[in-house]
Design goal:
Layout lengths: L2 H22 L3 H12 L2 H20 L7 H23 L4 H21 L7 H35 L1
Helix pairs in contact: 1-2, 1-3, 2-4, 3-4, 3-6, 4-5, 5-6
């Protein structure tokens, strides 16, 4: 059922390998994406990995929800948005972290709404996915505060 999680490490490895090869061959997009990825803190890299885990889970749930087209469509839309967020982060597009936090809040709210409306029962996969997204949200939020603290400390040190 969760085939996406088995495939995710292979896809990520192939993607990073392709970026590395592109950088060695002086491909501008590959250079930009790797530079952006290297600039991220370890906590933000972990947050992006968690977002990709969420995307893989949502994609793997689509076949089981084809009888419910609106739900299946939402899973595809969410996985696409999460993948786009990761690409935005790697390309250094401004505002991606705030967008990531908003996306994680929207995912948590959507699942809560589905459960409270009786459209879905809370299951292990759903709860685990929401915990992954909650951790990503915490990392997006806390990393912003950390960089604010670090910038403030640098200002004080140079004063």
């Amino acid at each position: 059922m969760l085939l996406g999680l088995h495939v995710l490490p292979i896809v990520l490895f192939a993607f990073v390998l392709a970026l590395d090869l592109g950088e060695r061959r002086d491909v501008p997009v590959a250079r930009r994406m790797l530079r952006g990825l290297r600039r991220l803190s370890p906590s933000l890299r972990l947050a992006l990995l968690l977002v990709l885990v969420s995307a893989a889970i949502h994609l793997s749930l689509v076949p089981g929800h084809l009888a419910q087209p609106p739900t299946a469509s939402l899973f595809v839309l969410d996985a696409t948005a999460e993948a786009a967020l990761c690409l935005m982060a790697c390309c250094g597009i401004r505002g991606w972290r705030r967008l990531g936090a908003i996306l994680m809040v929207a995912n948590l709210a959507a699942y809560t709404t589905y459960v409270l409306a009786g459209l879905e029962r809370p299951g292990a996969v759903g709860v685990a996915t929401k915990l992954v997204e909650l951790l990503a949200l915490a990392l997006f939020t806390l990393s912003g505060r950390q960089s604010f603290v670090v910038r403030s400390m640098k200002k004080v040190a140079t004063s």
